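[Automated response] Your request has been received and processed.

Submitted sequence:
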Amino acid sequence: MSKRVLIVDDEQSIRSSLERLLTFEKFKTFTAADGRAAIELAASERVDIVLLDIKMPGMDGLEVLGALREQYPSLPVIIISGHGTINTAVEATKLGAFDFLEKPIDMERLLLTIRNGLAQAELARRNVQLERRVGLKTEIIGNHPEMLSIMETVTRVAPTNARVLIMGENGTGKELVARKLHELSKRAGEPFVEVNCAAIPEELIESELFGHEKGSFTGAVSQRIGKFELADGGTLFLDEVGDMSLSAQAKVLRVLQESVFERVGGTETKRVDVRVLAATNKNLIEEAGKGRFREDLFYRLNVVPIRIPPLRERASDIKMLAEYFLREVAGELGRSLKKLSPDALDALMAYSWPGNVRELRNLIERLCILTSGDVIRRDDLPALTIVREEDARKDPFGLRTYQEFKDFMEKEYLERKLRENNGNVSRTARQLDMQRSNLYKKLEKYGIDFRKEASGDDD
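Generated structure:
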């Protein structure tokens, strides 16, 4: 990806010569004849480094330098002046200039200085990215077979540029998987930009994604850089992509096909190198059948599908997740580590978790704050949060949702049939006319303990 250089000088001949040189050296260039134009360009285009003259009409170079450093602290600025003095160089350095070069310009030295400035900016940016990644919780927790399969898929797919569609209910960890894909990719040092398509009004989603030009619609008082430009070289995560408007879907499809787009109200075609990851809690094929989602976009996004199971389908992971969150929250709060009593853990295992992993994490945090002792017991759990299995057995029709009722009855049925066969899984599967692998998955899902008879006919 070409680095972008902004050349600011009031002399046309200097702007042209620098532009020719840098274009030959494979840089992308922008030019401005005065300070205000330079500040506007920096606001509307992603710029990697600035070559800035001192003596200009209106705002002089030092004023422009101060404004750029205030708005873009990590942007390297090289001062170029034909009126260089020691005092000017010192003042520019104090204001944050990367270097100071005198006219006439030594082109070899200029190129070396540009490359050094870009290298320093890249190092600073990578440090920020590293700090962000250290601060983010990107560990995928779980030993359930489906989670192990997801982790294997993430490891294989991450180093490629393949698009991934992550499907699952709210709270299952779709963003976590997207961040892990970016973290393990070759783009890890580049931006990870997230767009929540469900949280942006329909009339603003195109501006959010592609940016807009000043005056392109009511309220567009200045140019804006969109998420695709901000993610150039990195990863763009379209969360809840099923909520995107059809017009925005058409433009996203074009970017995926051709890697180009125009800002809203603009005519200049912009090219980007972006890996797109998408997530949804909807069935996009059904949405396409109802005319609410483009089928061609679905197939573009669905190169590698990843389905994250709801927590109720991997109950065996609840203990591991709860203990992980207990350690995490204890570290965040600076408190001693709490433990779950067996009856509290049983209650957590019996709950259907409509809010999935996010709900479990929030509950653990609340318990760590409100529980006085070092052990969290069944009585410490919120009264309406957990469904006791014994209460469900007394009145299964009192369960809150159809899913809770269905899961409870299926678990009861499988436990009874397994007991009738003395824990022999193969015999139970044959009796139920069910594949043994499928029965194992269901036993794992509900956290049902089973044993194989030493003299049984398991094979």
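Summary generated for your ticket: The radius of gyration is 29 Å. The mean pLDDT is 86.
If you did not submit this request, please reply to this message.
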